[in-house]
Amino acid sequence: MRVLGIESSCDECAAAVVEDGRTILSDIVASQVPFHADYQGVVPELASRMHAEWIYTVAKRALDQAGTRAADLDGIAVTVMPGLLGSLLVGLSFAKGLAWSLGLPFIGVNHILAHLYAPRLDTASPPDYPFLGLVVSGGHSIICRVEDFDRIEILGTTIDDAAGEAFDKVSKHYGFGYPGGAAIDALAATGDETAFAFPKPTLNKGQRRYDLSYSGLKTAAIRQLEQYRRPGAVVSKENIAASFRKAAIDILADRLLKAAEDTGLTTIVAAGGVAANSYLRSLLGSKKELDVRFPALSLCGDNGAMVAGIGCKYLERGEHSGFDLNVSARVPLYRSFGRKEA
User: Fold this and answer.
1) Are 290 and 306 in the same domain?
2) One domain, residues 249 and 135
3) Residue 175 and residue 89: Cα distance in Å, rounded?
4) pLDDT, the chain, mean
5) Where are the beta strands (DSSP E) in 39-198?
6) How, if at all, do strands 140-148 and 131-137 pair?
7) Most distant CA atoms of the chain, gap in Å
């Protein structure tokens, strides 16, 4: 089964062809980063307009690279939640139109579940279910128990800022570059991670054992830098970046390892943009008692391959979406403390 995956949830216009839910035949990502860099963040209206301009060409390139005609596809998968409404609508409208014109089934998929599926692509030994999932993508930071490709139990999530948001905001404040996560990771490589002893959140130790919080760390790094400087430490962009990166990733790792200990799950799958962070990969990779899986670096960010891959599993099961399907900017339970949606 060959499936075309369409991803347009934020600022990456992506399409890919995946065979049998495992083998990537093509993976095209047209990045809008240069167009949003001046604003140090994604401008939703600009993003949706660019998706509308690019989506046809990106999908055609994916088909050409895969050596597949549109008429030879077995189905189409498209991200429908969560994300920017305008951007999501462009991808869904294109997928609906193409599916209708070709008489193909199509399926709308959850962006977060697609990220968790990414480590199953192009590998001879995909992780067995159940496993512990860490999704650190855009505005989401989620620790979950993954029972199957379409079934997860949220164990912990952010109560305020997500990790990716904190990286972006600190980077923007200091002018480190955009996107913030990659800029801070690059600067941190030559910095002293002990220069600043940034605080870590203390949340309720009972039911909030796996929840995350980044507003305090963000405020400390931006507004209270001198308060947390180690005596004699040099105030440099490399040292700020290294110290912030360590604190931010240590928060994730602490909660994640607690969840592994409590659940008894020894397989961990990390996915999403922050899963490309070199310190996170090194830290979790050092836990020899755990089987830690990361996607290829090219599959950490938003991409069409993960959408096509998980879409294939739905279509194989006989599921498909109707043409009345709509998009959703938020998904319930992806933020904590009683918020109805996020």
Assistant:
1) no
2) yes
3) 32
4) 94
5) 75-81, 106-110, 131-137, 140-148, 151-157
6) antiparallel
7) 68
pLDDT at residue 205, rounded to an integer? 59
State how far the alpha carbon of 249 is from the alpha carbons of 145, 211, 245, in Å: 20, 14, 6
Number of domains making up the chain: 2
Domain that holds residue 7: 2-117+300-316
Q: What is the pLDDT of residues 225-260, one digit of tens each?
A: 999 999 999 999 999 999 999 999 999 999 999 999
Packing angle of the helix pair 278-285, 237-263 (nearest 10 deg): 40
Domain co-membership, 240 together with 156: yes
pLDDT band at 333 (very low <50, low <70, confident <90, very high): low
Provide the pLDDT for residue 332: 72
The token pair at 19 is 């065979």
User: Which region, left, alpha or beta, applies to residue 157 given φ > 0 means left and ψ of -120 to 50 means alpha?
Assistant: beta
* Residue that the structure tokens 């800029």 belong to: 183
Query: What is the distance between the alpha carbons of residues 121 and 114, in angstroms, rounded to a whole number?
Result: 11
Predicted pLDDT of residue 251: 96
Residue 336: inside a domain, yes or no? no
Do 277 and 161 share a structural domain?
A: yes
- Mark whether 9 and 143 lie in a shared domain: no
Taking each continuous run of H as one helix and of E as one strand, the counts in the chain are 10, 10
Question: In this structure, are 105 and 202 located in the same domain?
Answer: no
* 45-51: average pLDDT: 97
Do 134 and 39 share a domain, yes or no?
no
pLDDT tens readout for residues 49-79:
999 999 999 999 999 999 999 999 999 999 9
Q: What is the CATH number of the domain that holds 93?
A: 3.30.420.40
